[in-house]
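New to this. Please check this fold:
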Amino acid sequence: MLLRHPIKLLLATAPVVVLGATPVQAAESVSDGFIVSATLKIEQPHEAKCSLTAKNIDFGTITLEKKQKKQGVLSVKCEKGVKYELTVNEGSHAAGGQQRQMKHATQPATLNYDLLYRGKPITPNDHFVSDTATGNTTPIRITGQISGVQTKDKKPDGKYTDKLTATVSF
């Protein structure tokens, strides 16, 4: 908890003794009680807020004779002035924690793919974007790429997918 304005309240009473004085008799006295109070407001530190949304990358129906590319978008919105970094993990089926792979829906077959930002590979879990927020939504365009050189093994027809997690750190 952060106290910006700590409040100190000191209430003390002490007996007073006067030496050599003659006691004085009071004719009458009246008393009334009173309350000492303070309202303490503890200010919570303001935490910057960011949000992140992702648009899927769908290659559609493809053949492996040529390189395939499709674009996706990660949209980042943070409060103005917040410094943030963006990462994407290796996905659910990565080989050796580095090579991203899509897995066939019913068979053990996989397809290698890469993610690119501004033409350069996005290394899993590395910060590929570091920026200061404007307060508006910032679209980060990434490209999914399937190399046409995956003909070592015959790949079965069917749907291949992978699940990735993008993270904005601030």
About this structure: The two ends are 21 Å apart (CA to CA). The longest strand covers residues 68-78. Confidence is low (pLDDT under 50) at residues 1-21. DSSP finds no helices and eleven strands in the chain.
